[in-house]
Write a structure and sequence with these properties.
Structural class: alpha+beta
Helix content: 10-25%
Oligomer: single chain
Number of strands: 40
Shape: globular
Strand content: 25-35%
Largest sheet: 8 strands, parallel
């Protein structure tokens, strides 16, 4: 077996650096990577022909699509006749491969329509989504999905594992329906209709077309668990102590917040010695008499997981003087000092990696930390390495090599299972090592998630930063700290931030003082927001793409010009999209939750929402229920009216297609209104009974709301207590323990 000394020594050679991750897999099994061949950056192989009525697309050793080509005439599909269809297969074969496969009728006969019908095959990480089109102009919304989307706005399929995308340019005339999920992959029905149909295939979609060159998802699966908990920074800054820890653990335990889904307690910039040596990080100051192990033990004994912050900086003068070769220097050989007496460690130097980086992160791992936030990475890269004038180039290293070697060594110390949060700002250079990324500066950023929604659940988990549910005056913003204006403490504030973090599928790290959580009136929002359900984007573009597009453009321009990439931060303030559509796809039912959030200082008026604009079948009837007000908007056709919404207000509309029998309208445990809590939902037609199992929390009343159509009447419930409320039946359960609880409601007909 290779030792840590021999692995780190291998970093001396650039070729060894590129193979370091593989060495970790072989000797330690410490990374998320699997040894799979990368997909080729080339077009699909097309076999068959339009005239034969059958087309097959092959890529990366297997079939990814099989289509019948048909002509519809007088409402009947038939095979095309000779010369009836023009077929073209063209592609650009430079760095960004783009293949166009087009079908067109040879003449403009209005009695005929061209169609392709068939199946698309993807890995277990493939899913339907939409590309930018007229639908977003008609109704602007940020979309994401739990499970495989069935939305009618979808015109594309993206396969994350192999990073390819296929789309139809005929948005309005394309439907994609998931029909099979298995351990081998997903299968989708695909149908496109029109006088001309064009399919576009793009391999290495995020890596090449979005210019995320380190994105190799076939090596690294995405973290799908709820990344939720509490962070000390915004509540205490550098004042946090062991006494404060005990207080926050006490109130979190009393309020059963672990049962609601809050897992990690993360200590921030308060415990360390400050010099940057391993001892300064692992031997804690007198604010924590029981030290690092005492912190971890306290957190775990309270039922949570310990999490820790660290800065990627170094200040120890003795080491700087004794080993200047371990640090980033300018062409004159002078050490580069960044903000806050910041010196950057060069982990491509084996002794620096072995003596400074590895033992720090291995120490965190050994102490039991399962979440590590690495801060000031932007300073290491932008204020150190990128302004160094080519540090490391004499040894064959690029700026990215020097930066990534730090994360490479940190990951070696942490192992594969520790959640690694890169901080701060959007850092494409951290892709492949970071499980999450804080997208902006200090302070919750509502705009950040919409600017990088297409990255969340694909590249990493987006972090909007600590979520203070009761914002309070902090004074003027300094540096990367965004000023939080003073607000009155009322319930709308406590609901707004956690709702957005949850409905977007992002990270949710609370950061208020214990007194905020002691007041039950402040807890409803955070209780309903966690755990955060894992989502994938419903759109392969970003709602506000100015920032994400800038990442692509700047990095490509810098490659051409030979300069270092510029720092890119998500905007934390500015125009915020009020609408988010969360699609829930479960084995027993598919429904949507439409979120409307008012971040402005003015009331929102009534607004008409058309189901067709949301990508729902306009010919169906829908049950619409608002979560926070418990208002049933009735059986709606074509559209519904979203009521007025006050300043900092939040609305969550569950939209379920109406069935012919009694059905669930909403549940009270989670903002998904069943997406987290419901399992095994069954309608027993013979006995006219709804049966289900629900995940509940001790002491938290759980309300089930059922719609009863004409012809049915409520008879009984188990447990008892069902109450008729107009067209609805409501059953409230009072759990005496956290776990699963079965229930049923019986009707007569």
């Amino acid at each position: 077996m290779l030792t840590i000394e021999t692995i780190i020594t291998q970093i001396r050679n650039k070729s060894a650096l590129s193979n370091l991750l593989l060495a970790f897999v072989i000797s330690f099994g410490l990374t998320n990577c699997t040894r799979q061949s990368p997909p080729p950056n080339e077009p699909t192989v097309v076999s068959g022909s339009a005239e034969s009525g059958f087309i097959k697309l092959k890529y990366h050793g297997g079939n990814i699509a099989e289509f019948d080509v048909v002509v519809t005439e007088n409402g009947i599909d038939r095979k095309p006749m000779r010369g009836e269809i023009e077929f073209n297969n063209t592609f650009f074969s430079e760095d960004m491969v783009e293949q166009s496969i087009s079908f067109a009728l040879s003449n403009n006969d209005s009695n005929k329509k061209l169609g392709i019908r068939g199946k698309v095959f993807g890995s277990t990480e493939s899913f339907p989504a939409e590309t930018m089109g007229q639908a977003q102009t008609n109704f602007s919304v940020v979309r994401n999905s739990v499970g495989l989307s069935r939305n009618l706005r979808n015109n594309a399929i993206y396969d994350r594992k192999w990073d390819w995308e296929i789309e139809s340019t005929t948005h309005d005339c394309t439907t994609i329906t998931p029909i099979a999920e298995s351990a081998k992959g997903n299968t989708f029905l695909w149908s496109s209709t029109g006088n001309k149909i064009e399919l576009t295939f793009r391999p290495h979609f995020y890596q090449k077309h979005k210019n995320l060159k380190y994105f190799e998802p076939w090596k690294q699966p995405i973290r799908k668990d709820s990344i939720s908990g509490w962070c000390s920074w915004w509540a205490y800054r550098r004042e946090f102590s062991q006494k404060d820890l005990d207080e926050i653990l006490t109130v979190f335990s009393e309020k059963k917040l672990a049962d609601f889904g809050y897992k990690w307690i993360q200590i921030d910039d308060t415990f360390q010695g400050g010099s940057g040596t391993p001892e300064s990080w692992t031997v804690w100051n007198d604010k924590f008499p029981d030290g690092m192990k005492g912190y971890a033990d306290r957190v775990r004994e309270a039922g949570f997981e310990p999490a820790i912050w660290i800065g990627a900086f170094f200040r120890d003068s003795e080491t700087l003087e004794k080993h200047p070769e371990w640090f980033v220097k300018n062409p004159n050989g002078e050490l580069i000092r960044g903000p806050w007496l910041f010196y950057g460690i060069d982990a491509t130097v084996p002794e620096a990696a072995k003596n400074l980086v590895y033992p720090t992160y291995k120490g965190f791992k050994d102490a039991g930390f399962t979440y590590v936030k690495i801060d000031t990475l932007r300073h290491l890269l932008y204020d150190g390495i990128n302004v160094s004038g080519g540090h490391g180039s004499d040894r064959g290293f690029t700026a990215d090599d020097v930066f990534r070697s730090y994360l490479d060594t940190a990951r070696l110390g942490l192992g594969k299972d520790v959640f690694l949060l890169a901080c701060w700002g959007v850092l494409p250079e951290a892709i492949g090592f970071a499980d999450g990324c804080r997208l902006g500066g200090d302070g919750f950023g509502p705009a950040t998630m919409q600017q990088y929604n297409s990255w969340n659940g694909i590249v990493w988990r987006n972090d909007p930063d600590h979520c203070d549910i009761l914002p309070k005056e902090r004074g003027a913003g300094v540096g990367n700290v965004v000023q939080t204006t003073k607000t009155d403490a009322h319930l709308t504030d406590t609901v707004l931030r956690p709702t957005l973090a949850s409905i977007s599928g992002s990270m949710l790290m609370l950061s208020d003082r214990p007194e905020v959580y002691r007041d039950d009136a402040n807890l409803e929002g955070i209780k309903r927001a966690a755990p955060v359900l894992f989502t994938v984007p419903g759109q392969l573009y970003d709602f506000d793409s100015r920032k994400s597009d800038l990442v692509i453009k700047l990095n490509r321009a810098d490659v051409v010009q030979g300069g270092p990439p510029s720092p890119i931060d998500a905007d934390q303030e500015g125009d915020v999209c009020p609408w988010w559509l969360l699609e829930i796809n479960k084995p027993f039912e598919n429904w949507n939750v439409l979120g409307r959030m008012n971040w402005t200082n003015a009331e929102f008026a009534n607004e008409t929402v058309k189901f067709a604009d949301l990508g729902l079948n306009p010919d169906s009837d829908y049950l619409v229920y608002e979560f926070w007000t418990k208002q049933f908007l009735g059986v709606c056709q074509n559209e519904f009216i979203a009521p007025k919404l006050g300043i900092k207000g939040t609305q969550l509309f569950a939209i379920r297609e109406k069935d012919s029998h009694p059905q669930i309208v909403s549940t009270s445990r989670h903002i998904s209104q069943g997406g987290h809590d419901l399992t095994n939902v069954k309608w027993d037609e013979r006995n006219n009974t709804i049966k289900a199992t629900s995940s509940v929390v001790v002491g938290d009343p759980y309300e089930i709301t059922i719609f009863v159509p004409e012809g049915y009447n409520f008879e009984s419930s188990s447990p008892s207590g069902g109450i008729v409320d107009g067209q609805l039946v409501k059953l409230t359960l009072n759990p005496n323990q956290t776990g699963s609880l079965g229930w049923e409601i019986k009707f007569t007909k």
